[in-house]
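Holo model, flavin mononucleotide. Inputs:
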Amino acid sequence: MARAEVVYESIWGNTEAVARAVAEGIASRLGEAEVSVRAASDETGPDPSTQLLVVGGPTHAFGMSRPATRESAKERGATTIPARGIREWIDALGAPRTRVAVATFDTRTVSPRLPGSAAKKALKRLVSLGYEPAAKAETFGVHGYEGPLADGELERARAWGAQLADRAR
Ligand SMILES: Cc1cc2nc3c(=O)[nH]c(=O)nc-3n(C[C@H](O)[C@H](O)[C@H](O)COP(=O)(O)O)c2cc1C
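Output:
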């Protein structure tokens, strides 16, 4: 069973790419068998063996997405909209039964820089449920709403994942 889980929400694939890079970083320290990645639309909660939970989503309207913000992505050409985002995934979580470290990240548009972060809000909720913060909420930049990711963000995501794994060991 994996010791680390990365759960993501993504409409255009930018947050998913960051999630996979974070998982690669974790795997570089803990080994590939010790990390799993899945979408928040997958209705299952974390595996009981998980010691490090990483949750990432796009910032929508200064915070975590909602059904209405996800729907409005269609106006910008999005074709596949996930039925659930990280907000709903976290809402369905109970308190952890053992010590579980948590870290959150979001993606946000680099220009214009807007206030508000899905990752900060997600971290606050997870900590209030009893998860232990392993790092400050992290942000990765995308160009426009659809992406691509800003230069160097996947490398930064891998390095961040490795750092999280080192802290959780
Ligand atoms: C409805 C909507 C609202 C958004 N609001 C914000 C925002 O408040 N701040 C921001 O930086 N980016 C905002 N964005 C841009 C998203 O953060 C961007 O689309 C996302 O990072 C792309 O990730 P994805 O490819 O994983 O969906 C918004 C996008 C949508 C569709």
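Residues 10-15, 58-62, 69, 72-73, 76, 107-109, 114, 116, 142, 145, 147 surround flavin mononucleotide (CB under 6 Å). The mean pLDDT is 95.
Archived with the compound record.
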